[in-house]
Specification:
The two termini are about 35 Å apart. Strands 5, 6, 7, 8 and 9 form a five-stranded antiparallel sheet that branches. A four-stranded antiparallel sheet has the order 1-2-3-4, with no helix packed on it. A hairpin with a 5-residue loop joins strand 18 and strand 19. The longest helix has 8 residues. By secondary structure, the protein is mostly beta strands.
């Protein structure tokens, strides 16, 4: 296996964080170069726990536009989730609005962070992970605001299994009629089998949904078993107003490639489809989830990372039949490329990702104007010497924007051509 860069070694195989499974180790053939990542010590206002909250002190930020073109961001600071809005595409923000009145430990790093979505009426929906005392354990939390962030509902726990085990890596999407879909990685089946003295590879994916704006949620249901424990999920709503979810799955033989499910209706997950044929055999957690975007014409666009002997790096593929089949996968990015994200607006598609050149974190972009059939040459759109969050794409139905945060610097929203 060819050597990978510092940044890839950091993000692709943080085995120690594999939730509740201390036996998971990379095999000799899967070992990657060791790297030491030092999170810069917070200084100035960010080192003062009594200082007023500022998003520059957040490690991770999520963003979304509402139907009026207002940008909203969510982040965590000192045991609270906050939101802010911007009327000028991120040039300035209103004051931070606190979501949870009572302090609680919040996970906000790497592949998981507070999430924010808005519906057609401007209702703000948020999810995040409540960190429990047991290592790698957590609960999925939910809150909403119906008055533009002036007031938020008391947070509720969405997972109905309340053991101090892992319910984490949540993803939220909002349906056309205001339906709320929340999915997450869940250890309840793993723990049950463990107590019975049986082996259970990976975790499961569970979901809950609401059709009354989050006042009530239907009971948790399972989507899939044997999924990778530490890779983010990606969820979208298809044009027929049903949920679609993709994740890193554990196929037979410890193959950790990607899978996708399109729901038949809000209560019925469809069949599991395979995305890509990387055949990455690894008994560890890559900490590298996929990205998914679905166009109005029902074309599914997916990006992901692999490090198998035959497929190393970042890949893209599209599907024109609701995920039943995918195009030949396209490799992109240099060695050390990581954490890709994709967004489709009409026939226009954009993909961003991060690379590390030994000194700088670099954000790169490539464009397609024909539903992913052909692509422009990659170009650099941002660069920093500082540690940076993963790059994401957001759109206001007209333009694409890079959503990005570097350590102890203000959130950046950059218009992409």
């Amino acid at each position: 296996m060819k050597p990978l860069s510092f940044f890839l070694a950091l993000t692709a195989l943080a085995v120690s964080a594999c939730a509740n499974d201390t036996t998971v180790k990379p095999s000799a053939t899967d070992k990657q170069p060791q790297a030491h990542h030092h999170t810069a010590e917070k200084t100035g206002v960010c080192a003062d726990p009594k200082a007023l909250p500022e998003n520059l002190c957040a490690d991770t930020i999520s963003s979304a536009f509402d139907n009026k073109g207002i940008l909203w961001i969510s982040w965590a600071n000192n045991d609270h989730v906050f939101v802010q809005s911007s009327n000028d595409k991120g040039l300035s923000f209103g004051k931070p609005l606190q979501v949870n009145a009572v302090e609680e430990k919040i996970e906000a790093k790497g592949e998981y962070r507070p999430k924010i979505k808005l519906d057609a009426k401007g209702t703000i929906y948020l999810t995040w992970t409540l960190k429990l005392e047991t290592k790698h354990s957590g609960h999925v939390r939910f809150s909403r605001s119906t008055d533009g962030g002036l007031h938020f509902s008391a947070p509720v726990t969405v997972n109905d299994n309340l053991e101090a085990i892992s319910h984490r890596f949540d993803s939220i999407s909002i349906g056309k009629n205001g339906e709320i879909f929340i999915a997450w990685l869940d250890a309840r089946d793993f723990e049950a089998e463990k107590k019975a003295g049986k082996k259970f590879d990976g975790f499961s994916i569970y979901y809950a949904w609401s059709n009354d704006g989050g006042t009530h949620f239907y009971p948790n249901k399972r989507i899939a078993t044997h999924v990778c424990q530490c890779c983010r999920l990606a969820t979208e709503i298809a044009p027929d107003n049903t949920p679609v979810i993709t994740w890193r799955h554990i196929f037979e033989g410890e193959i950790r490639d990607h899978a996708l499910v399109k729901f038949n209706d809000w209560n019925t997950p469809g069949d599991t489809q395979r995305v890509g044929q990387d055949n990455w055999k690894i008994d560890a957690c890559p900490h590298h989830g996929p990205g998914l975007s679905i166009s109005a014409s029902s074309i599914y666009h997916e990006v992901w990372f692999s490090n198998s002997p035959t497929h190393q790096g970042l890949f893209y593929a599209y599907s024109t039949d609701s995920g039943q089949h995918f195009s030949e996968q396209l490799k992109f990015g240099n060695d050390g490329a990581s954490h890709p994200h994709v967004l489709a607006l009409g026939s226009q598609v954009r993909v961003v990702w991060q690379e590390f050149d030994g000194t700088n974190n670099i954000i790169k972009l490539m464009n397609s104007a024909d539903d992913g059939k052909s692509w422009s040459k990659p170009e650099m759109v941002a660069l920093t010497e500082h540690s940076g969050d993963q790059p994401f794409l957001v759109g206001d139905d007209v333009n694409f924007y890079l959503s990005w945060k570097t350590q102890q610097h203000d959130f950046q929203l950059k218009l992409l051509k």
